[in-house]
Design brief:
Strand content: 25-35%
Largest sheet: 5 strands, antiparallel
Number of helices: 4
Distance between the termini: 58 Å
Shape: elongated
Structural class: alpha+beta
Number of strands: 5
Number of domains: 1
Oligomer: single chain
Helix content: 10-25%
């Protein structure tokens, strides 16, 4: 009997924990095999290590919660990039008095607020909200 070479597929998923709001992405190598009885089975590997299927009983890498939203790859990184990209600040308008400048200086800029940003579930799910 000849041995059949396993077929390997590369897939990546994005995850968002519904308990703590943590988001991450993981790439997998998925090996499709056929056993001696001609039954199909699958082996998942992440970073070269064999891992359980991320679709059967996923758990949060932050809090070990088991209620996760599984999305296509790129969803979490896109949101993270948007939240960490500094927004342009407004240029001062001529004719504003010193009192207006002091009030504007007291308001934190997007860049300083982004440095202290704490992830919340709503941050990750906001782009998916339908109006």
């Amino acid at each position: 009997m000849s041995e059949i070479t396993p077929t390997t597929v590369h897939e990546a998923y994005a995850f968002a924990c519904m308990k703590c709001g943590y988001g991450w992405e993981q790439a997998y190598e998925i090996e499709h095999h056929v056993d001696g009885s001609n039954n199909d089975y699958v082996i998942y590997k992440a970073d070269g290590e064999r891992v359980p299927s991320p679709l059967s009983r996923p758990s949060c890498v932050n809090c070990d919660g088991h209620v996760l939203r599984i999305m296509r790859a790129g969803r979490v990184s896109t949101v993270q990039n948007l939240l960490h990209t500094p927004r342009p600040t407004r240029t001062p308008v001529e004719g504003i008095d010193a009192q207006g400048d002091e009030a504007r200086a007291a308001v934190p800029t997007a860049a300083s607020a982004g440095a202290q940003h704490h992830w919340h579930l709503s941050d990750l799910l906001h782009p998916f909200h339908r109006k």
